[in-house]
Specification:
The structure holds two protein chains of two kinds.
Chain A: H1 2-21, E1 25-31, H2 38-57, E2 66-72, H3 77-89, E3 94-96, H4 101-114, E4 118-120, E5 135-137, H5 142-155, E6 161-167, H6 170-185, E7 189-196, H7 204-213, E8 217-221, H8 224-236, E9 243-246, H9 252-258, E10 266-269, H10 278-291, H11 297-317, H12 322-329, E11 333-334, E12 346-348, E13 354-355, E14 358-364, E15 367-374
Parallel strand pairs in A: 1-2, 1-3, 3-4, 4-5, 6-7, 6-8, 8-9, 9-10
Antiparallel strand pairs in A: 10-14, 11-12, 12-13, 14-15
Helix pairs in contact in A: 2-11, 3-4, 5-6, 8-9, 11-12
Chain B: H1 2-32, H2 39-55, H3 61-89, H4 93-114, E1 130-133, E2 136-139, H5 140-162, H6 164-174, H7 176-181, H8 186-212, H9 218-233, H10 238-258, H11 266-278
Helix pairs in contact in B: 1-5, 1-6, 1-8, 1-9, 1-10, 2-3, 2-4, 2-8, 2-9, 3-4, 3-8, 5-6, 5-8, 6-8, 9-10, 9-11
The chains are: A alpha/beta, B mainly alpha.
């Protein structure tokens, strides 16, 4: 009897061990699921989840299913550090996020020391100048986007003066500094420089300042929620545009939150679900079906990051090797023919900066209309 | 000059909303010695009641608003009193205060968990047009917000001063023991106060959410501003809450425009400190004697 019980227990143990032995590849999403950047972080997370589900449905990466763990930074740098440490302690293959540039900055060294490739959503220009060999962007830095939009202001809008309203965080400050430099280089005068706070809800006073500046164009550079509130207040007070922005002002979430107040805004978008690219359109449809809302550029960022990892691991390395992945990513170009999940041809340089085609767009009747496709900088 | 007028009107509109919320604070304090630190979340919630009525039950906007109002009065008025205030007030004011702080956190996290952490658009009560007066352009929305806030406050004042029930409520606030001796149903008067507060926060929510979007964090700053407005105006005077709210809205706007956007939150807090130091009963409040 005792032997039977022992045998059964041993068999159960072996079964459990056998099940545990079918290893998963761990990925960690460390991002803004709540807080003032929850809109962006939520989109990025959902893009990641969609990619993980698709890849797992086809057998995973190198026959191992992806086990994704979510960590919420609450858009707070202090919390971001503790969550990133928790994620690192879980020994993931790669980390996805944060999206908020301030959180990327405070966790960058931790990721570098842990030698884990980190695919970030942050767009502040300085992030790729901080010397991390494990940091990879999923969208343009501001140093790529701002020259393009400055050209647009000069050549298409023919504006001689610009009033700028920006969010006072790492993302906003970086964008403001880059834009000021690009405008000055094109002899465009900045006649108002209005800083606002992250999470701010009341923009009445700020819009009054913009009105008083009487500029040829108003440049709005803030996070999605704040952009929507600014546009609502601007329309409420009758502030005349044109309103110009880079990515966040024209994002799907901003359009949804601002409703008719977003109509007429123009600008540069690095990524958009309305891009005239069939793969992007199909992705947007799958995303909408899965999550019941239309993705913005952050959803595309999260989605393509996971597929980039899959491609490099399967096609370039053939095993799970974090250091090799980081090394190969530098200078790599992935085309949609090689990996359909990448959606558009994407190149990473030796500091993790990204290069892709981008778009000029206008919001018409609640939708982004792409007016021009801009080539990669490398072409 | 045009800028000043625009800032004044925008500030009065925001201040009108602060006044509505601050009046709720003072009413609850006067009649039931309740300091409700969940008042900000009470303003945040009705917007989500309306969104749920529209999104999940498919109601058109105005019926959803009516449903939201009814739910607000019942949940944030009646149930709040029966389930939180009545059991806790026996233990004193401080335990109730702490309980309302906990309630604020609970409500905020429940919205975040069950509805979402994102901001959500909310339909405006009026079209986003503007009107030019004396060279200044005023938003019609701001004018409507100001008008509705003042109308609600005026109606409340009329109710409190001009009706028998209102005067009974005032008597209850002044001296519940004597009011009881005079045959006033004190418990019922206190209940009415809570129901009125439920209605006030519903109106405030409808006015503020179209501009600020529906988000679970809205209550944090709104509750703080309304509390400051009530203290500045006078915590034991409804008129004080009105003046405090309007003053705060205007000062906040002018501070952001002419001093600093970064320090706009500090200005009201500095005013609060000055008022507490030099006129602790508030601008229109009366000094309360203590029995020894």
């Amino acid at each position: 009897m005792r032997r039977s019980i022992f045998a059964v227990a041993l068999a159960a143990l072996a079964l459990a061990a056998g099940t545990a032995g079918a290893a998963d590849v761990k990925m960690a999403y460390v991002g803004e699921i709540s807080g003032s950047i929850a809109v962006s972080g939520g989109n990025f997370r959902d893009g990641v989840i969609l990619a993980v589900e698709e890849i797992n449905a086809r057998g995973g990466i190198l026959k191992e299913k992806i086990a994704l763990t979510l960590y919420d930074t609450q858009t707070n740098p202090g919390v971001a550090r503790s969550q990133m440490q928790k994620a690192i302690d879980g020994d993931p293959y790669v980390i996805l996020g944060p999206i908020f540039s301030g959180n990327v900055k405070v966790t960058l060294q931790m990721v570098q020391q842990a030698e884990i490739p980190d695919f970030i959503g942050g767009e502040a220009a300085e992030l790729t100048t901080l010397g991390s060999a494990y940091l990879f962007r999923t969208s343009f830095g501001q140093q790529i986007g701002m020259p393009k939009i400055a050209n647009y202001i000069r050549d298409e809008l023919k504006a001689k003066t610009v009033a700028l309203i920006w969010v006072n965080n790492d993302f906003g400050k970086g964008g403001r500094d880059k834009l000021m430099k690009e405008l000055a280089a094109r002899n465009i005068k900045l006649v108002a420089d209005v800083s606002t706070e992250s999470g701010q809800v009341d923009f009445a006073a700020d819009v009054v300042k913009l009105k008083a500046a009487n500029a040829d164009a108003v440049f709005v550079y803030s996070n999605e929620e704040e952009c929507a509130r600014i546009m609502r207040e601007a329309r409420k007070q009758g502030l005349k545009g044109p309103f110009v922005g880079d990515t966040t002002l024209l994002s799907q979430k901003t359009i949804e939150l601002a409703a008719e107040a977003a109509n007429g805004v123009v600008g540069h978008v690095g990524l958009t679900a309305d891009a005239p690219i069939p793969a992007v359109t199909e992705f947007a449809q799958r995303f909408q079906k899965r999550f019941n809302y239309k993705p913005d550029h952050n959803g595309i960022k999260g989605y393509t990051a996971v597929y980039a990892v899959k491609y490099v691991t399967e096609k370039k390395i053939g095993k799970f090797d974090r250091k090799a992945l980081a090394k190969i990513m530098h200078g790599l170009t992935i085309t949609p023919q090689e990996e359909p999940g990448i959606l558009m041809e994407t190149t990473w340089d030796n500091v993790g900066e990204i290069d892709r085609i981008s778009f000029l767009a206008e919001v018409v009747n609640g939708k982004q209309n792409i007016s021009k496709v801009l080539p990669k900088l490398g072409k | 000059m045009a800028d000043i007028l625009q800032l004044l009107v925008a500030g009065l509109a925001t201040g009108g909303i602060y006044a509505l919320v601050a009046v709720g604070f003072t009413l609850l304090w006067q009649t039931s010695q309740t300091i409700n630190f969940a008042q900000g979340e009470f303003v945040m919630l009705p917007a989500f009641f309306v969104l749920i009525a529209m999104g999940y039950f498919g109601l058109p906007f105005w019926p959803a608003v009516a449903v939201g109002g009814a739910v607000s009065v019942v949940v944030l008025g009646l149930l709040f009193k029966k389930w939180m205030v009545d059991p806790m007030i026996r233990h004193g004011v401080l335990p109730l205060v702490i309980a309302t702080i906990g309630l604020a956190i609970l409500m905020k996290e429940m919205v975040r968990e069950f509805y979402g952490a994102d901001a959500w658009p909310f339909p405006a009560l009026a079209a986003t047009t503007d009107v030019a007066v004396l060279g200044a352009v005023f938003s019609v929305q701001s004018l409507i917000i100001l008008a509705i806030s003042l109308a609600v406050v005026a109606a409340l004042q009329f109710f409190l001063n001009g009706t028998r029930t209102g005067r009974c409520m005032q008597a209850t606030a002044q001296n519940p023991t004597v009011a009881r001796l005079l045959g006033i149903r004190v418990d019922r008067m206190i209940l009415y106060t809570f129901l009125i507060n439920g209605a006030l926060v519903w109106v405030a929510s409808l006015l503020i959410t179209p501009i600020y979007l529906a988000k679970f964090t809205n209550g944090e700053w709104l509750g703080l501003y309304a509390f400051i407005a009530a203290i500045i105006g006078g915590f034991n005077q409804v008129r004080g809450a009105i003046v405090g709210g309007l003053l705060l809205g205007v000062v906040d706007n002018f501070a952001a425009a002419y001093i600093s956007s970064q320090y706009r939150t500090a200005i009201p807090l500095m005013i609060l400190i000055v008022v507490i130091l030099f006129r602790p009963q508030g601008l229109l409040g009366r000094v309360e004697e203590r029995t020894v």
